Amino acid sequence: MKTDNLIDALTTQGYYVWDDFLTPFEVADLKEAIPEDQLQEARIGHRHTLQGNREIRGDLTLWLDPTMGEPIAQYFKKMEEIQQSLNQTLYLGLRDFETHFCRYPSGAYYKRHNDNARNQNRRKVTTVLYLNESWQPGDGGELLIYSREKPESDEVILSLPPKAGSMILFLSEDFPHEVLPTQKMRESITGWYLTERFL
Ligand code: OGA
Ligand code: MN
To answer: Is the entire prediction scored with pTM above 0.85?
Structure first.
C-alpha cells in the first residue's frame, strides 16, 4: 500500500482524502459482511439520555472486530498497515485501533464536535470510510471540517460527500467537524488510532 501522499498531507494540512481506498467490489463485500441486526443507537456518554443524545447525533452504530468475516478482517489488516506506516514516519506512537460501522437514517445528522471529548486524548487519528454508492449532489450528508487555525470560527475548510470507497483521515485533536443532515440512508465506518492499549 502506498502511503506517501497520506503522510505528506497529514504533515502539512492535518488531513487527507483517499479517494480510491476501496474498489466498488470491496465496498460491496464489506457492506455484505456487516451484521446489521446488531446496530444500536449511538451514545455519546453516560451523562446523555438517549433523547438528548438524538439532538446531537442520529446514527446507529456497531463496533467491529476482525472475527466478523473476511472482508472486515481485510479492512482491519489495511488499517494496521497504515498504523505501522504512520508510526514509522510520523512517530505518532499509535498502539491500537477501534472502529464502528455507522448508519444515518434519512434526516439524521451529527452536530459539530471534537472526537476526543471523553477519551483523555487517546484518539490521535480519525478515519472515516464511506460506503454509499452513487451519492448525488443534493443527497446531503456531507462531512464538514472546520479550520484548526480558527477553531472558534465557522470557517469550513472541507465539505466532503460520503462517496463509496473514499476515506478521510484527520488528526483527531485538531479539527472540529460535523455531519450535515442526510436526505438518504448514509453508511460509513469510522475508526480511531489510539495512543494507548485498552485494558
Ligand atoms: C464520527 C464522525 C463523520 C462522518 O463518527 O465521530 O464524526 O463523516 N463521523 O461520518
Ligand atoms: Mn467525529
So the answer is: yes
CB within 8 Å of 25: residues ≥ 6 apart: none
> How far apart are alpha carbons 175 and 167 in whole angstroms?
16
Provide the CA 166 distance to its chain's centre, in angstroms. 11
The residue ranges of every structural domain in the chain are 3-44+52-194
What is the residue with the minimal CA distance to atom 5 of ligand 1? Answer: 190
Distance 161 CA to ligand 1 centre (A): 12
- For the stretch 41-87, pLDDT in tens is 887 765 566 666 778 899 999 999 999 999 999 999 999 999 999 99
The residues, any chain, with a CB within 8 Å of residue 108's CB and separated by 6 or more, are 57, 58, 59, 181, 182, 186
Cα(163) to centroid of ligand 1, in Å?
A: 14
Q: How far apart are CA 97 and CA 115, in angstroms?
A: 14
- Closest ligand to C-alpha of residue 113 is 2
**3-44+52-194: CATH superfamily:** q2cbj1_9rhob like domain (2.60.120.620)
Which ligand 1 atom sits closest to the C-alpha of 177? 7
